Amino acid sequence: MPDQAYFWSQAAGAYEENFIDPFRSDVKNPLLRAIWRAAKPGTRVAADLGCGIGPLLPLLAKQFQRVYAVDFADKMLERARERTKDFSNVEFLQRRLSDLADLAGRVDVAIAVNSLVTTDIPELERSLRQVHAILRPNGRFLGIVPAMDAVHYYSMLLVDRALSQGKTMEAARKNAAHFNEHSFYDFAFSEYRYLGLEQHFWQPFEVRYRLRRAGFRRIRQTRVFLSWEQIACAEDLKDRPPPWDWFFEARID
């Protein structure tokens, strides 16, 4: 059975078509301001953990002296390398986020955008401890994780939409399940499975809980409201706040 690195490599070619983009111009993303505050151009080291196809790498390469771009999927790294071919300060590392021992104490700012998604919870917690270990004193960990509560929120809006159109409660639930892809979710364990990919979605209370267990302190979290333009039924729902991911910023003691 192929592992997740294989399936994420398979997804690299059509990544923009299949995944919601938190970096669209119509998304107010607090991560970008947090990176700007944390950077001291020409002096600090950043790590993009689970860099994917590399949307953040050009920005990081301009703001930091050195950037480590880490991902376990070779095809993702191929696209990321192409994106940063004009920068000489980006080093690519193919590995899991639980395998960062050689970066211990070498990073000022670690960033993980929708890459902390393994459904193997012990592996997820090992990854968080590894991130803590790579940070220098006063280092920062910035991240975005997919929100399980936003899936429930969107389902609620879809049910209300269908009811307002005169559908029965049973039909409204079926309608919501279709548009929100309920068949791909395990709601009890906050998991999403599609085309071989397995992703852990986060509850809001889980963000602080797991970061604290990994040793992080001074944790701040807020929503990243996504673009209705990438979500089904937007025309009928755009008067409501859109679904969200969770942004967090944490520090080590």
Rounded to the nearest angstrom, the radius of gyration is 19 Å
Instruction: Give me the CATH architecture, please.
Output: 3-Layer(aba) Sandwich
Number of strands: 10
> How many domain units?
1
- Low-pLDDT regions: none
Described by the principal axes of the CA atoms, the overall outline is globular
Task: Please provide a written account of the structure.
There is one protein chain. Helix content is 37%, strand content 25%. The protein has 253 residues and is an alpha/beta fold. The termini are far apart.
Brief characterization of the structure:
The protein is an alpha/beta fold and 253 residues long. It has helices at residues 4-11, 15-18, 30-38, 57-63, 74-83, 121-134, 148-164, 169-179, 204-213, 234-237, and strands at residues 45-49, 66-71, 90-94, 107-113, 135-146, 185-186, 191-194, 197-200, 217-225, 244-251. The chain has a single domain (4-146, 200-228, 243-251), classed as Vaccinia Virus protein VP39 (Rossmann fold), CATH 3.40.50.150.
